[in-house]
């Protein structure tokens, strides 16, 4: 009697693969589809990756299809936020930033104001034209992001607006994290030269 604790299956391609428990299926699917290197491929390629990893279970094709059909793909969901205030430079004192939740891709511009028109124009010319219309946009409750102009834009293009509530700001976490890094780096750049050169003990 074998001491091997696993169940194995000889598949139709004559490769022996390990059968995994139901509790492990989701983690395997997420790894092969969405983890770094997963690339959010379609059903066929994701299934092939699972099988290339040496795994099998009876409902593998159905489960992969369900995952892929409900998965948020690249550029489907963006976080958006203003970074402010900054010392005015050529009349620019704000940075409007958007970040894709899946790939981490960032788009940002310096702006003179932080009003709704700036946001709408930026989304149309820098996001929609290059990456397509996303399914959802995530922001805080700032008036420059929650207003009639934004509501009209979202309704026109069939987008969902998810609000990061004040006591749960991690809803917009990727944008918030990137904002903090920019603020930290620009704060260093804006220090007086003698302060930057001050020796540390």
From TrEMBL:
InterPro entries: Gypsy_RT_Integrase-like, Integrase_cat-core, Integrase_H2C2, RNaseH-like_sf, RNaseH_sf
GO annotation (BP), single: DNA integration
Record domain Integrase catalytic: where: 68-201
Domain of life: Eukaryota
Pfam families according to UniProt: Integrase_H2C2, rve
Family annotation (PANTHER family): ENDONUCLEASE-RELATED
Protein name: Gag-pol
Name of encoding gene: gag-pol
């Amino acid at each position: 009697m074998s001491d091997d604790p696993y169940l194995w299956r000889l598949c139709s391609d004559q490769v022996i693969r390990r059968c995994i428990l139901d509790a492990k299926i989701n983690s395997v699917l997420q790894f092969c589809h969405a983890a770094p290197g997963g690339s959010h491929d379609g059903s066929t390629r994701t299934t092939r990756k699972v099988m290339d990893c040496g795994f099998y279970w009876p409902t593998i094709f159905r489960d992969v299809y369900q995952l892929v059909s409900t998965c948020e793909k690249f550029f489907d969901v963006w976080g958006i936020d203003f970074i402010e205030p900054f010392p005015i430079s050529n009349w620019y004192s704000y940075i409007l930033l958007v970040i894709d939740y899946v790939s981490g891709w960032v788009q940002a511009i310096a702006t003179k104001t932080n009003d709704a028109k700036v946001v709408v124009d930026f989304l149309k010319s820098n996001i929609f034209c290059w990456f397509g219309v996303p399914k959802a946009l995530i922001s805080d409750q700032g008036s420059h992001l929650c207003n009639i102009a934004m509501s009209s834009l979202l309704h026109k293009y069939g987008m969902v607006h998810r609000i990061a509530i004040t006591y749960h700001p991690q809803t917009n976490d990727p944008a918030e994290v990137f904002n903090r890094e920019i603020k930290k780096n620009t704060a260093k750049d804006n220090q007086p030269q003698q302060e930057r050169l001050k020796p540390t003990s």
